[in-house]
Amino acid sequence: MNRRDFIKQSVIAGIGCSMPDWAFGESVEEKSASGTELIWGCLLHLSFNMWEEYISPHRPFRGYRPYLRMDEALWNDAISAMAKAKVNTVVIDLGDAVAYESHPEIAVKGAWTPRRLKSELSKIRAMGIQPIPKLNFSAGHDTWMKEYSRMVSTDTYYKVCADLIREVSALFDTPPLFHLGMDEETAEHQSYYQFVLMRQNDAWWHDFYFLVDEVEKNGSQAWIWSDYMLWRQPETFFRKMPATVVQSNWYYGEEFNPEFPYVKAYLDLEKHGYTQIPTGSYHADNPLSIKNTVTFAEKFISRNLLKGFLQTCWKPTIEEYRARILKGIALMGEAIHTLPADS
Hints:
Mean pLDDT: 90
Distance between the termini: 40 Å
Structural class: alpha/beta
Strand order of the largest sheet: 3-2-1-8-7
Radius of gyration: 19 Å
Largest sheet: 5 strands, parallel
Number of helices: 11
Strand content: 5-15%
Shape: globular
Order of helices and strands: HHEHEHEHEHEHHEHEHEH
Helix content: 25-40%
């Protein structure tokens, strides 16, 4: 029985399995003793090609573009704003914005070279921020994979995924976390697409376990959006989801009623012992989203399972969205002060 099967069987049986302490977060006392901190993170897009070729009328900023859509001045200002706000983690959506040595055919025009990325990561670390890679392998958000996005669950697909995870892990010097996305893989979420592809049931779990294995094989801990299975098939989720995978349930509203399904998901994850990084957003007019997320989590999620928080804006890093991106970072800075000083 391999490691993945062992973890699955342990979760299914409801028994514990030997896992590293960092897979579960730390209490306040453990944090103080080890010197580690909660993650206070922001998502920043190097690539924004997670949606299919058709550009939907209600969200024209989405849709595939064959060129790098990233304004360097805004990128630099965003990183600087994070450092000033005491944000200690940036999750970088890489997609096709890097000319990977293993698969250069994926890269868009103007993509960063691996050397350019490595240089940027060094600069970010020097500013006191931990960079974390994100490659979204959801079949609904993998347009960045070019032709491979239509080869899901094939031998070619598995090889490409493994190659990319291995290369990115090396570029990030074995990051503590690796975000795999895995959200919104439904026909409904692809209603504007010209080509719809989705996995479900055992086919989804098979590919998910493969991706998690590849991340762990390269020395990192897998991190995902929780919504796809948690919101739709919670019993299956809690039976099959490995406890080693960090969960980001996301809720972008400002009212945290525990009876709301998307809010209750935080409580269900807590009840079943999963490590969480709750996620808010300033993608619309919801300035209290991340602050109220922190307040809710402080009250209802135990510290040994609370790994940190993530703020999103879901806009490409281009000048048109400068104000919103920088405001989202500032709101995360304000949220950092929501927890008591010893947190």
